[in-house]
Write a structure and sequence with these properties.
With 460 residues, the chain is mostly beta strands.
């Protein structure tokens, strides 16, 4: 109520789809819905220095449905920057990273002119692509993970297959290093027993070494009937590998995602399957020396199959997604404390997205951004998990009310009011408001009214 000067939660609605998160004061806002072309964003978003977000779709584009690179503003305006042709790569499953010089780097799992083994590419924010390396099998094949830029300026990554230890499966995968100029060095080839099929990227820890996971492999690996439950490993920038942990199923199985180092020095991650609760996957932490603790085993009602890794929030907790659940089977967003207390924040329903297989990205505005592989208009979505807008209403010296609310720069807001909560209709002010910063204020005349209730709606 305006006359009281209290804070009231504004209702954000309009063309953006919004749903309230369960058990938390958060809301999910759908920024964009992919249709049939392009579609299926599988990688996480990255926010560039220009404030926009960049990502990939595994399918679609104007060149034979080989996938795309796109840019989307925080307000939801999307542009396709590049459509892969096959000869320059195809099926970019991973997200991008922004390296030095504001250039973006990524991987395409397939394509390239030398046997469909995949590629590493550089792309400008204007969409100009430079291929840095085509894989040939022996130096790796099928890079499915995002790159990481090391402290030495080089880019480090993994390939799911290929390498010099082929065995019976065509190669167990590799770890590689490549400079921004394209100088390539294959650092390590897995042999199965020390890991196989690294589907995730690496993280460089405070000790200078890189840490990662393999989705298969372990001591019982034989390449024919026993493929293992996956591993956690450490690798130096020179390529020296140490196996830290082999999963046994009960403590997790199939870690598809990479690790995140917490402020406590521990590494935190997920496994897609395994655990102690209906094989629904786990969240774990592990010391740099390999001592693993299972923090949570998913059972279905709280989500299942966490394919993506974790993101650190400003509150010190970790945030992640599950591909499915026992309620809607469209996936969830969750929060977990470093000690393992998990809260389900949101359950997708298909209309607002399905199968969130990519990790979340904490934007500069303090909100999490993410993608769903499916759902929405059919080809997946881009969403933002936000704190609901709060409106402060205080009397103005000249009469009327000063309304202030937290806003998104360049967002268009509609201010509406009604005389009492029982009234079914809201009346909009004559002009919508364009926000130019993260806090917006206007003065509204009461026009003889003794009181007004306000709400703020964020428009497309």
């Amino acid at each position: 109520m305006a006359g009281s000067g209290r804070f009231c939660a504004a209702l954000i609605a309009a063309s953006f789809s919004l749903a309230q998160a369960a058990g938390a004061n958060l809301a999910l806002q759908t920024l964009y819905q992919f249709e049939s072309n392009p579609k299926n964003p599988r990688g996480a978003l990255v926010q560039g220095s220009d404030g926009n977000f960049y990502g990939t779709t595994a399918v679609g584009g104007t060149n034979g449905s080989n996938g795309t690179v796109f840019r989307i503003t925080p307000g939801g305006v999307l542009n396709i920057l590049h459509s892969f042709q096959g000869s320059d790569g195809a099926m970019p499953f991973a997200g991008l990273i922004e390296g030095s010089g504001r250039l973006l780097y990524g991987t395409a799992e397939r394509g390239a002119p030398n046997g469909e083994f995949g590629a590493v590419f550089q792309i400008t924010t204007n969409g100009e692509v430079t291929i840095l390396h085509y894989f040939n099998g022996l130096d790796g094949s099928f890079p499915r993970a995002a790159l990481v830029q090391g402290k030495d300026g080089s880019l480090y990554g993994t390939t799911v297959s290929g390498g010099t230890n082929k065995g019976t499966t065509g190669g167990n995968g590799t770890v590689f290093k490549i400079t921004p100029g394209g100088l390539f060095n294959s650092l390590f080839s897995f042999d199965g027993r020390n890991g196989s099929r690294p589907t995730a990227g690496l993280v460089q820890a405070s000790d200078g070494s890189f840490y990662g996971t393999t989705s298969e492999g372990g001591p019982d690996y034989d390449g024919t009937t026993m493929f293992g439950n996956g591993t956690v490993f450490k690798i130096t920038p020179e390529g020296i590998v140490a196996s830290l942990h082999a999963f046994n199923g009960t403590d997790g199985n199939d870690p598809e995602a990479g690790l995140l180092q917490g402020s406590d020095g521990m590494f935190y991650g997920t496994t897609q399957f395994g655990g102690t609760n209906a094989d629904g996957g786990t969240v774990f932490k592990i010391t740099p020396n390999g001592a693993l603790t299972n923090l949570h085993s998913f059972g279905g009602l709280d989500g299942r199959y966490p394919v993506a890794g974790l993101a650190r929030g400003n509150d010190g907790n970790f945030y992640g997604t599950t591909e499915g659940d026992n309620t809607t089977d469209f996936g969830t967003i969750f929060r977990i404390t470093p000690s393992g207390v998990l809260t389900t924040l949101f359950s997708f329903n298909g209309t607002n997205g399905a199968s969130p297989v990519a990790g979340l990205n904490l934007g500069k505005d303090g909100n999490f951004y993410g993608t769903t592989f499916e759902g929405g208009a059919g080809g997946g979505t881009i969403f933002r998990l936000v704190e609901p807008t709060l409106v402060a209403a205080v009397p103005a010296a000249s009469g009327g009310m000063i309304l202030s609310w937290n806003s998104f720069t360049n967002g268009t807001y509609r201010v509406e009011h009604k005389p009492d909560l029982a009234s079914p209709d809201w009346t909009a002010l004559a002009s919508d408001v364009l926000a130019i910063q993260d806090t917006t204020s206007i003065t509204n005349s009461l026009e003889g009214a003794s009181r007004r209730f306000y709400r703020i709606r964020l428009l497309p």
